[in-house]
Structures are given as structure tokens and as C-alpha cells.
Amino acid sequence: MDIEREILETDIAIVGAGPAGLALAYKLAQLIEADGSVDMPEILLMEKGSHCGAHALSGAVMDPRGLAELIPDYIEKGAPLSAPVSTDSMYYLRKSGEFKFPFLPPSLSNHGNYVISLNRLTSWLGEQVEAKGIDIFAGLAGYNLVIEDGVVSGIQTVDMGLDKEGNPKSNFEPGSIVKAKVTVLCEGVRGSLTRQALEQIPELTAGRLPQTFLTGVKEVWEIPEGRIKAGEVIHTIGWPQPNHEYGGGWVYGMSNTMVSVGYAVGLDSPDPTNDPHMKFQRYKTHPVLKRILEGGTMLHYGAKTIPVGGYYCMPKLFHAGLLLCGDSAGFLDPSRLKGVHLAIKSGIMAAETLFDCLKDGDFSPGKLAGYEQRFENSWSKRELYKSRNFHAAFKNGLKSGMFHVAIQTLTGGRGLFDRREHKPDHEYMLTIEAFTKRFGQKPHKESIKFDNSYTFDKLTDVYKSGTQHEEEQPPHLVIADYDICNNRCTEEYGNPCQHFCPAHVYEMVEDSERDVKLKLQLTPSNCVHCKTCDIADPYQIIRWVTPQGGEGPNYENL
Ligand code: SF4
Asked: How many Å lie between the centroid of ligand 1 and the Cα of residue 296?
């Protein structure tokens, strides 16, 4: 279908109003105000969620360093910090017992940090940006990155009002082409435009290791008083994660009666039945968790991938017409599982670079390179470099990982090896045959019966994410070849998508046209935009693209 698209011009297009994009906008306005000699540029700050913060989700314990650098009086300005961290502990869990570590690794010490709800913090940050006179266009999603003669020249926004087959309905509104001097991608983890940039501009990933991810699944609970204190932070390793997989859990006291509880699972698992949602529900049945949660009420649910590859997996941060910030560029310290402070810092450094560009009227790649130079000289680089080998330490399981991390702590992050090569996560998934050969039994998902009052099935949880999508639109999970799903994948892997998706979007149902055969059925309206399928699919035939703007989860307190 040939579509005539409106062309809009702007100076700076920022895709994603999360911590990185908002920090960028705020800092740029601050620099321009303080300098007085540069006019405010035209900024298009877009957010695919229905409002600022609707798609923001994290554990989260925030190191305030980034926020303090951006807004030194953040406490006086009313930043929504649930509680300062009061106590820190770490447990090794066995199926029915636990061992409390007498001390914590330095990276997990949270003294001076805050338990927060990222989606509340993001909404507040959005208000600070709007108070600087910058509009946030919520409900506006980027669909394509526009690259002309090797230069990123802007984005095409998503078409609204198409039916399931992609035909225009009566309310059809074609997406526009937004031309910008610089496009800054702050889309969060595995952004769809960032993926296009990394695929189409080989220079961005040349010499870098592929990013590696966890899927974090989280609930917020209201609990009886006396179970946990506001600011109490508990991390766990061990059960229910098998030794050959990477992951762990957490409980954070948001107040004396509200907790964030969650579990994160590596997507480089060899197990085709790897199911982060099921692992999380089983995790809650451990006595350590039951002592805190039992008798409480689950209020909210969400899921999101986490980029944990660290420094060696970060792409080049700039290209002609392009900057990459926040989770889109892998700004996350894997040893601390913290990225909010680094995302904010990346936004600050991008703003300083763009301010220089505005002053000199020069947006050339040579000028944009200032962003990467700032990063190289910043505390964010020093922090990320220190944890550069952290994830690789766990390649041979939890016990050897703990040994390697101890050596890394003593050697400034180097450990016994530096820059260990690895493959993209999906290449670690084994076929049923290969798994059986390696582990002596077929892949078998440990499961529990959900009671939907303490442990929840995926659909009940999804309801608590507030996710909503218009049903009458093209599916935003684009499957390149259904034949692979319905035949080859069923035999080789047993259709892992039905396991790894934490929102029950993928289901194998009986195919009435074939005897004893199953076919893939999608329910895209359940999707919580976690991006697990885009990463973990072993054939890489699933592509997550943006649905109409303003859809997806409506996170609260997450
Ligand atoms: Fe996550 Fe993909 Fe499932 Fe959506 S469909 S919830 S992105 S795994």
C-alpha cells in the first residue's frame, strides 16, 4: 500500500520518555537556561505508553547518584522515593531451607540507596521536564528508523487505524516522517528502533559482544504490618534456579505494608521450557517468601527484560544523526543490577553533547562523538568497567560464578579472564534432543497448581498489569514463518514461546485441519512489552514491532 506521509521537521527527536530521555530533555533545558546565548531547539520527546511512566518497570533500588547530578534538590522537589534502604541481606535458598550470608559482596551493599517505584519516579521526572517547557508526546510510537545514505535522518511514527490484515479503517491516520538533526534512542531494553539501528549500521556493534538478557517478573503486594520494614532489601540466589542457569530473586520493602517481590531469569538458558513467570510463582512458595507475603494481597504485575551483558556488550554510542542512551545502549551495572542512575547519567552526557552541537551549529558525527568521549571520562564508565566480566563469571553455573566474582572483586573487575566471548542468548537454547543428551532427561518444566490468591496464572497476572491493546490492528508480534512454528519448532524445541512469554501471548492450539497437530495462536492484546520473545526465540523469526501508540501496560507502583 502506497501511503503519503506528512513530513515534520524538528531539531532533536527523543524516542522514549524513560529516565534517560527525560534526563536528556531536562539537562538540555537547564544548560540553555544557564547559558542564555542559545535558543531552545525544537524537541520532539515521544513516549509509546499512554502516559509518562506507563511502561517503566524496575525492581527497584536506585542509587541516587544520577538523579542528584541532574536535580540536586530532588528531595525538596518531592521525588517519589518509597524509602531509604534500611537493611540489606542476602540468602542462598534450598528447596525448603535457607542460608543467610553473614556479609554481602560490596556490589550488593545498598547503603545510601532508595527503594523506588520506577514508574512513579518516571512520571515525576516527566513533570519536571514539562515544567521546563518541553512537551511530552505520550501515545506516540516510532515504527521505523529512517536512514538515508548511511545517516539517521529521523523516524516514521506508527500508522493508526489499520485492521488485522493491515487495511485502512475509517479512522486511518498514516504515521508521519519526523526529520531530525539528531535522533536519540532511549527506548529501554531491546527497543525496536534500536534493533533496526544495530542491524542496519554494522559499525555500531563492530568488535562488541552481543548483549545478554534476563527476564524479570514482578508483583507488588500489600501485606500485614510487621512482616518487613520500609527500606528493607532482601536478595536471594539458589532455588528455584537450577545451577546451570543465571538468575535470582528479591523482596524490597516499599513501606511497612507494601513490598516489591520479583524474580529474574537468564535468557541464555539451555532449557526450552524456561518459564520466568512459573519460576517466580514457585519462588513465592519458599518459606522465606511465604513468611512475608502470606495473608497479603497482590496488587500489580509486570515483566521486563534486563540487559546484563555489561561494558563489553555496549554498542558504539553514536553515529551520524544518532545517539543511543539508557537501557537501549546497555547502561546497566550487572554486578549491582542497577541501571536507573546510569540511564540518567547517559541522558545528561547526551544533553551536554547536544548543547555543544547547538552552540556551534554543528551536528556532524565528529561533534556527536563528544557523547562517547564524555562517557569514557565519566564515573559511569568506571563503574561499568569494574563489572565488565561479572555476567561472564556465571557461564559455568552459580558456584563457579561466585568463585570468579570473588576474584574479580580482588582484581578490580578483571578476575581470572578478561572479555570472555559469548553468543547471543537464543543460541544457548538446546533442542529437546540435545538437552536430553546433555542432562540425561528430557526438558521438563517444574510446575505448580496456581490458586489465584497466592500464586497466579499468567492471565490473572496480566490483568494486574493494566495492559490494553486495540484488538483490530495488525499483530505487533510479527512471525516470519508460521510453518517453522507449527512443524519444525514443535519437534525440535517443543515451542518455547508458550513457556518464556510471561503474558500468555503464545499458545499452541489444536489445528482442526491436521490430525493430532498443533498450531500457534497469538493473543497480542495480552503483551506487556517485555521483549522476551524478540530475544529468546531460537529461530529469530519473531519480531516485536510497535503497536498503535498509547497501548500496552499501564503500570502502577511498579
Ligand atoms: Fe513479552 Fe513477547 Fe510476551 Fe509481549 S509477546 S509479553 S514482548 S514475551
From this structure: 28
- The pLDDT, as a whole number, for residue 170 is 95
- 360 and 397 part of one domain: no
Q: How many CB atoms lie within 10 A of CB 223?
A: 21
pTM of the model: 0.97
Residue with the smallest CA separation from ligand 1 atom 1 is 530
Cα 449 to ligand 1 centroid, rounded to whole Å: 23
* Residue nearest ligand 1's atom 3 by CA: 501
304 close to ligand 1 (CB < 6 Angstrom): no
C-alpha–C-alpha distance, residues 300 and 222, integer Å: 10
Burial of 211 (0-12, 13-18, 19+ CB in 10 A): buried
Report which protein residue has its CA nearest ligand 1's atom 8. 501
The reply to whether 403 and 373 lie within a common domain is: no
Q: Whose CA is nearest to atom 4 of ligand 1?
A: 527
Check whether residue 404 and residue 366 sit in a common domain.
Answer: no
Determine the distance separating the centroid of ligand 1 and the alpha carbon of 551, expressed in angstroms. 14
Regions of the chain where pLDDT drops below 70: 515-516
Q: Secondary structure of 32-45 in the HEC alphabet?
A: HHHHCCCCCCCEEE
CA-based nearest residue to 264, from 311, 298, 305, 301? 305
pLDDT of residue 11: 98
Task: Tell me, yes or no, whether 189 and 167 share the same domain.
Answer: yes
- Report the pLDDT value the prediction gives residue 397, as an integer from 0 to 100: 82
Q: 304 C-alpha vs ligand 1 centroid, how far in Å?
A: 9
Instruction: Give residue 104's pLDDT.
Output: 87
Residue 259 falls within a domain, yes or no?
no
Residue 25 lies in a domain: yes
How many distinct structural domains can be found in the chain?
A: 2
pLDDT tens digits, one per residue of 479-532? 999 999 999 999 999 999 999 999 999 999 998 877 668 999 999 999 999 999
